[in-house]
Amino acid sequence: MTIDPGELPPDIAPDTKDWTWTVHQTCPECGFTAAEIDGPSVADRVPALTEPWQTVLLRPDVGTRPRPSTWSPLEYACHVRDVCRVFAGRARLMLERDAPEFANWDQDEAAVAGRYHEQDPARVRLELAAAADEAQQAFAAVPAGQWGRRGIRGNGAEFTLESLGQYFLHDLAHHLVDVGA
Ligand SMILES: [Zn+2]
Predict the structure, then answer these.
(1) Ligand 1 center–CA 49 separation, angstroms
(2) How far is the CA of 178 from the centre of ligand 1 (A)?
(3) Fewest CB within a 10 Å sphere: which of 83, 139, 148, 150?
(4) What's the pLDDT tens digit per position in 73-107?
(5) How far is the CA of 136 from the centre of ligand 1 (A)?
(6) pTM of the entire structure?
(7) Which CATH superfamily is domain 24-178 in?
(8) Ligand 1 ion: residues within 5 Å (CB)
């Protein structure tokens, strides 16, 4: 760890980009084509896109940022863990209710409030594996014919369960590329 645990690392510029387009086209940064994935195959793709973190989190320099303005692999891992939890919750909510509006989740606020840079990599390994399993189960629980159920983000963007799953898988794939895994 190069970051003094008593200090917050430098601020990361908030990620205000709208990434929903990644559901429709190949991501030029990571090469993932989310649109090719249909709802029923979302759950089965989660393990391959999350298990590499078990190795990443063993890196001796896992807490080191490559640049002051870029998350360390540890911070990315915490983010991915929380993404798994958030998307599992959203998928369950969309099954329980008709067109729910998602609670806002600011990933940059979550990183600061959760003190991602101070977290214990060994613990994050366990938590990420459990969160990935939770997300896999949430998508595996979607009955046939229910993939068109809707949910709405605070900014008005509308998802179906299928596009939520596509968006989620792209996020997982993209962050593996972010840390060279
Ligand atoms: Zn990408």
Answers:
(1) 13
(2) 9
(3) 148
(4) 999 999 999 999 999 999 999 999 999 999 888 88
(5) 20
(6) 0.88
(7) dinb family like domain (1.20.120.450)
(8) 27, 29-30, 174
Q: Residue 125 Cα, ligand 1 centroid: separation in angstroms? A: 23
* Cα–ligand 1 centroid distance for 22 (angstroms): 7
Q: Can you give the residue ranges of every domain in the chain?
A: 24-178
DSSP the chain: --S-TTSPPPPPPP----GGGGGTS--TTT---GGG--GGGHHHHHHHHHTHHHHHTT-TTTT--SSTTS--HHHHHHHHHHHHHHHHHHHHHHHHSSSPBPPP--HHHHHHHTTGGGS-HHHHHHHHHHHHHHHHHHHHTPPTT-TT-EEE-TTS-EEEHHHHHHHHHHHHHHHHHHTT-
Residue 17: band (very low, low, confident or very high) from pLDDT cuts 50, 70, 90: low
Q: How far is the CA of 16 from the centre of ligand 1 (A)?
A: 15
